[in-house]
Design brief:
Strand content: 35-45%
Number of helices: 1
Radius of gyration: 20 Å
CATH class: Mainly Beta
CATH architecture: 7 Propeller
Distance between the termini: 44 Å
Strand order of the largest sheet: 1-28-29-30-31
CATH topology: Methylamine Dehydrogenase, Chain H
Number of domains: 1
Largest sheet: 5 strands, mixed
Shape: globular
Low-confidence stretches: 1-18
Mean pLDDT: 91
Length: about 425
């Protein structure tokens, strides 16, 4: 009960702080929930499109929204999107009109830190989603660098100290923990979690992970901040293990998920349980009680799901149910407390983006730009399907009664016609 009350308090305080804005990867709670109602259920490349704006280059960072302005990152090169050395940029657009208000180079092709790594065909040099504290926009490009900007596009600080050997490029987004930006850094050589002071840009702490001797060590996780019995925990996934740290980077507990690697899904937290996927090669969804200490693999895993677990999309909890969609298009609804499967349906398509919950509906976006909308509940009910072109791997953003969807070369604002 104390765990449940803590997460309710944390959820309400977060929504109050960021009411009306979409401030980080998967929204103000970081768990894929939109408080808005009357979001669109029908659209196409021409129907219910308020505006669409081209975005130069390629970036799979999801949009964030603050005070009527939208922020994304992108990577631009005259040699094309496969060029390992690209201009890494932050872009600001008007939420109302889609007009580009500013486009700032954060790291030039010459100054970008880290190895000139060729990314995976489903990745980009600008995949981590920005985050805001309401005053500044923080952008992260993995080993290429991290920076803080004002909402008018002035660069406040840059940091390029967090170095490791990236595999397939960057991916995980930063989170805010007090005065620090916290990010997972898991490469082919070393693995650690680190914090950068959001005001100064200096490294506040750095904690090496105890990674087992497994062939593939890299991961792309985005941490999640939770509260258990009045104390904050940073849940961070790596290859082999999911870890919990205190706000100073000290280990609280860990769970071994038997060699999972290239971990992409972001954890979620509900009903006193942390839900994580072990990702490649054979994903398993774990429900973990976060109240333990040390290695709690044998004592605090409450249930697991193997069939239909995702490699890439994050889980979603709505009410008493947890929903997952596998990369190959199997959608599953389970009881969040017990793991009992209510339904499992093949919805078709391939999936990378994480699902969104809003107004009793679940929005699931396929890589080819199609969105499948289903009704949340213990019985499967499809509401509709809507298609944009071309492909997309970014997650939704929500503001007012509008959905913001980033495709390979456009940002769309979708809303029902008045």
């Amino acid at each position: 009960m104390r765990i449940l009350l803590s997460v309710i308090v944390l959820f309400l305080s977060t929504v109050s702080l960021h009411a009306g804005d979409w401030t980080e990867f998967r929204g103000p709670t970081g768990q894929g929930h939109a408080a808005e109602t009357n979001l669109p259920v029908s659209w196409s490349a021409t129907e219910n499109v308020v505006w669409k704006t081209p975005i130069d280059g390629l970036g799979w960072s999801s949009p964030i929204i603050l005070g009527g302005q939208i922020y994304v990152t992108t990577a631009v090169s005259d040699k094309g999107v496969r060029d390992p050395q690209q201009s890494l940029r932050a872009v600001c657009l008007s939420e109302e009109t889609g007009e580009v208000l500013w486009d700032v180079e954060v790291f030039s092709q010459e100054s970008a830190g880290g190895a000139a790594d060729r990314v995976h065909s489903k990745n980009s040099q600008a995949s981590p989603t920005p985050i805001t504290d309401g005053k500044h926009i923080f952008v992260h490009f993995g080993t290429r660098g991290t920076a803080a900007l004002t909402t008018t596009g002035e660069i406040v600080w840059k940091n390029q100290e967090l170095q490791y050997a990236p595999v397939h490029g960057n991916g995980g987004s930063p989170i805010l923990v007090g005065d620090n930006l916290v990010m997972s850094c898991d490469g082919g050589d070393i693995d650690f979690i680190a914090a950068i002071n959001k005001n100064t840009g200096k490294v506040a702490w750095k904690t090496d992970r105890t990674i087992p001797s497994i062939p593939k060590k890299f991961a792309f996780g985005t941490p999640l901040l939770i509260e258990v019995d009045g104390k904050q925990q940073i849940i961070s996934q790596a290859s082999g293990f999911v870890y919990s740290y205190d706000v100073d980077g000290k280990l609280i507990w860990k769970v071994d998920y038997n060699g999972g690697y290239s971990v992409i899904p972001r954890p979620v937290f509900a009903h006193g349980l942390v839900f994580v996927s072990s990702s490649y090669d054979s994903p398993v969804l774990y429900a973990i009680d976060p109240s333990g200490k040390g290695d709690v693999t044998d004592s605090h895993v409450r249930w697991t799901l193997k069939k239909g677990a995702p490699h890439t999309p994050s889980p979603l909890v709505v009410g008493n149910e947890v929903y997952v969609v596998s990369d190959k298009g199997i959608a599953t609804c389970c009881d969040a407390k017990t793991g009992e499967v209510h339904w499992q349906e093949r919805i078709g398509g391939n999936y990378s983006a994480s699902p969104l919950a809003a107004d009793g509906k679940i929005y699931i976006q396929a890589e080819d730009g199609e969105t499948i909308i289903i009704k949340s509940g213990t019985t499967f009910e499809e509401i509709g399907r809507n298609k944009l072109e071309p492909r997309t791997f970014a997650c939704y953003a929500v503001s007012g009664k509008s959905l913001f969807i980033r495709t390979e070369n456009q940002l769309y604002r979708i809303a029902e016609a008045d």
